[in-house]
Write a structure and sequence with these properties.
The chain is α/β, with parallel strands linked by helices and 510 residues long. Helices cover 40% and strands 11% of the residues.
Length: 510
């Protein structure tokens, strides 16, 4: 089912109705599995954490790594804030308010620019109102540095109490014994597995282990974005354009045959980790998978996986805009808004961006969103994101859990999702927000239960690196490749993956 955003005037009206609640366009981080959490994005200069809490303003200079001014400001604000009544921990876990005062270092990685920094600060303030004996020191770490810095922190014992953890990193850091497992009582205190999306919970622990090492926090969920004017010119009804694979391919062909000025697709094909996030739903939709159930053998060369890759490669080879082909997937949202391509795949963060800038060339005549098309075995979508982990070397683990419990609560998740534009992993947190009511987000709500995450194995960072390297030739073709050509590429990739999986020390974490 498609979900449309109105034409230019309707889009402007929608923007005016929501502009108080909607965050400004965000700065995105790298979407690499080995170097980030799978929330794609455009490249812009990094922005500094705002030195003052002036709504809607931010300093444009480079941000310091430790943000000492921010930590000081947080303490001053919190000490002068009108606090609400403290709430002691429930269930005998956490850090009661009668305990000595402590300060927690919290490492977070930027999914957005100043808007996320303000969201983190807001949550730190509200948390301190309820827990006056715990002060949060937020430390912004760039995704490009995070893997190395976390690795150093876990080996040296000098790191944060709580850290954001990309979903594909959980298996590796868990295998290294770097993360403090959450107890059964702590898991129960946050509501248990059922309050989170099932796919998100699959990344809370290493595959095959019962130890929960990262509680779900934010979710990268993806769907189709399309231009209404281009579909109309091609005589395509959005209601039936994206229902399944045959309908999707027929839609792309009609757009190309209409001889308009806009190519059917905008898919970035520069060799980066983000490409697999677009391919995986088609592998799953054909009945295939990337690895077997125990995560120790590649299935990429099996017929169902070849079917899914062949379908996707044909679409890219025949219908992708040549300008988009030269872009990384993180650059595509900006290109789509500027008029490149009639259809693209992106995550929910772009909804807020597009609604706040309705007069961009690719948006001014109306756009909409739709769930990913259903394949032979059903509808599937990629889910990524991040969790919250307590390092085994944390100085204040009980207080750290109080902070994690707060960030994963329905109230905090709801507020943080609306403020930052990021999708909460707690399913009930969207209730009463624009994520539940705005038609432009409907496709993403439909994709959450259809989403899958990659297996949380120690070697996933290595596996994804191999996929990015070995499958590069698939995306550089000027047309559709033959099945034998695709089979040969996937057979080599599978062999390389299996070799990597034989070495249990392969984590990609140095």
């Amino acid at each position: 089912m498609q979900h449309e955003v109105g034409d230019r005037h309707a889009g402007e009206q929608e923007h005016r109705q929501h502009q108080d609640a909607r965050p400004p366009p965000r700065l995105r981080g790298p979407p690499s599995a080995g170097h980030g959490p799978h929330i794609g994005g455009r490249r812009r200069p990094a922005k500094r954490f705002p030195a003052q809490r002036s709504p809607g303003t931010a300093d444009e200079a480079d941000m310091t790594r430790r943000l000492p001014a921010v930590a000081t400001m947080v303490v001053l604000l919190l000490l002068t804030a009108c606090g609400t009544a403290p709430s002691p921990s429930r269930g005998g876990v956490g850090y009661p308010t009668g305990q000595p005062s402590v300060t927690l270092d919290f490492w977070y990685m930027p999914y957005g620019g100043p808007i996320q920094d303000r969201a983190v600060l807001q949550e730190a303030e509200k948390f301190h109102e309820a827990h006056p004996n715990i002060t949060i020191n937020p430390v912004r770490i760039e995704w490009s540095e995070a893997l190395t810095r976390l690795s150093t922190a876990t080996t040296s014992g000098e790191g944060p109490d709580v850290t954001v953890m990309g979903t594909t990193w959980v298996g590796g850091f868990s295998a290294l014994g770097a993360l403090r497992p959450y107890t059964e009582s702590e898991v129960a205190a946050v509501g248990g597995p059922d309050v989170f999306a099932a796919a998100s919970w699959s990344a809370s622990h290493q595959l095959g282990s019962a130890e929960i090492t990262a509680l779900p926090w934010l979710t990268d969920v993806r769907a189709l974005f399309y231009r209404k004017d281009v579909l109309k010119q091609a005589g395509v009804d959005p209601a039936t354009a994206f229902t399944d694979w045959p309908a999707f391919e027929k839609t792309l062909k009609k757009i190309k045959d209409s001889h308009g000025t806009v190519w059917p697709l905008a898919i970035g094909n520069e060799n980066n980790f983000g490409i697999i996030h677009n391919v995986a739903p088609f592998i799953w939709g054909s009945g295939g998978d990337l690895l077997n159930g125990t995560g120790d053998h590649s299935l990429l060369a099996e017929p169902p996986a070849v079917d899914g890759v062949a379908y996707y490669q044909r679409l890219v080879g025949l219908y992708d805009d040549p300008k988009a082909m030269k872009l990384t997937s993180s650059d595509v949202p900006e290109a789509f808004a500027n008029g490149i391509g009639a259809i693209t795949i992106d995550n929910s963060q772009s909804v807020g961006d597009y609604l706040s800038e309705p007069n961009r060339p690719g948006l001014r005549n109306g756009w909409g969103t739709a769930p990913m098309p259903a394949g032979k075995t059903g509808r599937f979508g990629f889910l990524g994101g991040s969790g919250l982990a307590i390092l085994k070397s944390a100085q204040h683990p009980d207080a750290a859990f109080e902070w994690v419990k707060y960030l994963t609560s329905e109230e905090s998740q709801r507020r943080y999702g609306v403020t930052s534009g990021l999708w909460p992993s707690r399913t009930a947190a969207i209730k009463g927000t624009r994520l539940e009511t705005d038609p432009a987000y409907a496709a993403f709500r439909e994709m959450i239960p259809a989403g899958k995450m990659y297996p949380s194995i120690p070697a996933w960072i290595v596996v994804e690196s191999i996929i990015a390297k070995d499958l590069a030739d698939l995306w550089q073709s000027d047309g559709a490749l033959t099945r034998p050509q695709i089979q040969a590429i996937l057979t080599k990739a599978s062999a390389d993956i299996d070799t990597a999986l034989k070495d249990p020390s392969q984590t990609g974490i140095k």
